[in-house]
Amino acid sequence: MTSGETIQGTNRPPSTLVWDPLVRLGHWALVAAFAVAYLSAEEEAGGPDPLHVWGGYVVGALVVLRVVWGFVGPRHARFSDFVRSPIVALAYFRDLLYGRTRRYVGHSPAGGAMVIVLLVCLAATVATGFIAYGEEGKGPLAVVMVTDANANGNEAGHRTLAERRGAETESTIGELHGLMANITVALVAAHIFGVAVASFVHKENLVLAMITGRKRRARD
């Protein structure tokens, strides 16, 4: 190795693997699935676009997987590594805006809080979507949602009733589903803002870190 290569290698900040493959792939798959579901939310004549429905299924599966991984995954994937009190999270965000906050190798307190809030909102969006879809006599909850005696437990009969009711007024749960989806979009925008600010303050590309899994090693 030449002296120039030695100097270059010395100047390069040492990095460490922080995000395991499941966290990284799950993160970007969730981004893609939610985007597909949200952008295809416009209903067709016969009901929601199939892309919207299947996008919701994928989002639900990924949320469940991430929650499980938050208990059994490696160190930085676990909730115990980054879940802090709201006061600590707010204090971190305040200091971040002033450019004087501590750098974390894993999720920061504010980042951890955003992970939890996003998972809760995504779960609520999927759950209300399941119920709203079931009210139309479709999906896994179609049979469960049969409550009218005239339907006689028949899915086709329930679908007819649901469509007739839907022509009169939109389902309350359906409206809640749309509200939760919009709240999630707002949270995503806040998340992107937080990542941009943290990347600037800590001089570290956090988007790239979620792709490669590697971040600058802590200097303790």
Question: Can you characterise this structure?
Answer:
The structure is a single chain. It is built from nine helices and two strands, in the order αβααααααααβ. The chain has a two-stranded antiparallel ribbon with strand order 1-2. Residues 3-10 and 148-153 have low confidence and may be disordered. With 220 residues, the chain is mainly alpha-helical. Helix 2 (21-39) packs antiparallel against helix 3 and helix 6 (109-135) runs antiparallel to helix 8. The chain has helices spanning 3-11, 21-39, 50-72, 79-82, 86-97, 109-135, 155-168, 172-202, 206-212; strands at residues 15-17, 214-216. It has one domain (17-215): Fumarate Reductase Cytochrome B subunit, CATH 1.20.950.
SSE layout and pairing:
Elements: H1 3-11, E1 15-17, H2 21-39, H3 50-72, H4 79-82, H5 86-97, H6 109-135, H7 155-168, H8 172-202, H9 206-212, E2 214-216
Antiparallel strand pairs: 1-2
Entry keywords:
Fumarate Reductase Cytochrome B subunit, mainly alpha, 9 helices, 220 residues, single chain
